[in-house]
Amino acid sequence: MATGTRVLVDPELGPMLDLFPTAELSVELLPVLRQPGRFAFPPASGEGARVGLEKRLVPGFRGAPDVGVWIYTPPEATTPLPCIFHMHGGGYVMGDVGSQEPVHRTMAASLGCVIVSVDYRLAPETVFPGAIEDCYAALAWVFANAADLGVDPARIGVMGESAGGGLAASLALLTRDRGEHALAFQHLIYPMIDDRTCIVPDPHPHTGEFIWDADKNLFGWRAILGVEPGANDVSPYAAASRAEDLSGLPPTFISTGGLDLFLEEDLEYARRLMRVGVPVELHVYPGAFHAFNVHPTAEVSLQARHDSLAALTKRLKSKA
Questions:
Q1: 260 noted as active-site residue
Q2: How many CB atoms are located within 10 Å of the residue 170 CB?
Q3: Which residue of the set 162, 170, 241, 308 is catalytic?
Q4: pLDDT tens, 51-106?
Q5: What is the CA radius of gyration of the chain?
Q6: 204 carries an active-site annotation
Q7: CA 108/CA 114 separation, integer angstroms
Q8: Which domains, from first to last, does the chain contain?
Q9: What stretches of the chain show up as alpha helix (H) in DSSP?
Q10: Which of 86, 88, 187, 290 is catalytic?
């Protein structure tokens, strides 16, 4: 585990570290960490405040419980719009669909797109494949109801941060393999995609000290898998890095911090995608730890958000 890497942290990000809880994750602590609004963003303003929000329940996969979705639609939309299908982060064990409402309102307005955010079931109450099947059921519903939603089915892509990025990556694999729908892109922000990071014999000496560390990572993977991380038979639909074949996946955006625990698994995933001809845009931000991009004013955070929005703008305009 990394220690003493504070000197490597971007100075503008340093004060942010004092705002995040340092307690280790546990089953007993989860109810506190799951309290609605605990990590909420300030309310949207301007055009974002005018974005419509509809909350729906859609059928779960093969008899599973219904899945909640929050649907954001920009005002005065007159043509079929591109769509971002979003999954929130939280290590597979926390986070909620409403935490990024202000962000999604602003994005829907500025990008001129529909955003569908999915309320997937959390671990450890629901282990794999519950969460990914929730996501697939909701995504399939979006495709089936694209006309009613005002969505262009040729411009639907998946996006997520951290565990949400892991779900987005696994959902892209599952969508490719089931062959029922085609995604326009996958947009992965410091994605949590490899359970084997928990057991690597020679961990990176300068990553994972802050926000999301090795102990939290172990808890999260144990919770979602229901078995010890690193087992031989972990599904790629649980940990996307386990996929043997990455060909045929949609154009990919990956960003991560130079001090993020997920740095090496994200770099390796990007390398493997490029190796099979998948277009990849990769960003690594020096001095940045996990979740750094939420800082409101740090230059590195502003740059990360700018790069993300620029990539989304490009992909939302393109046909799959």
A1: yes
A2: 30
A3: 162
A4: 999 999 999 999 899 999 999 999 988 889 999 999 999 999 999 999 999 999 99
A5: 18
A6: no
A7: 6
A8: 6-317 (3.40.50.1820)
A9: 30-33, 101-111, 130-144, 146-149, 163-178, 214-225, 263-275, 299-317
A10: 290
